[in-house]
Amino acid sequence: MFDGTELRLLLLKLIADSPRHGYDLIREIEERTGGAYAPSPGVIYPTLTLLGEMGLIEEQQTEGAKKVYAATAAGHAHLAERVEEVEALLKRLVELGSQRARAGGGAPIRRAMANLKTALGERLDAEEGEPETVHAIAAILDEAARKIERLP
Hints:
Layout: H1 4-17, H2 22-32, H3 41-53, E1 57-60, E2 68-71, H4 73-81, H5 83-102, H6 107-127, H7 131-149
Antiparallel strand pairs: 1-2
Helix pairs in contact: 1-3, 1-5, 2-3
C-alpha cells in the first residue's frame, strides 16, 4: 500500500495531529480507508521505532502499558517541508475508502470466490489429480470465465 518512506510520513502526520499509540494508528488508517487497508503491527511498530530513532517522534509519559507517541519539533518541521506529499498520502487513503465503498456490492463475489477456492481445494485433494476430473473442473472454470467476460 505504501512504501517505507510514505508510511513513515503518514504515521508522523497522524501522530502530529494527535499523540497516539500503535493500535490507534492502525485503527485510524483502517477507518480512513473504509476498512480497505489496515497495516499490521509488524509494520507499524518498527516504523515507530525508526521515527523515534530519527528524532521525529518521542514517547510520552502515560498511565498504563501502551506507549503513546507525540511529534517532536523536528517532526513538525519535517512535515512542514513535505506538505504536498502528506496531502497526497491522505488523499490516497480517502480514495481507497471511496473505492471500497463503490465496490461494496462486490462482497457476494468475494464470498463466492472463497467458496470456489475451498471447493476446488477439497475436490482436488480428494481426487488426487485424476486427469478426467482435473480436465472437467478446468472446463467448468473456463466456461464460467467466458460467461463473466460476456456480461454487459
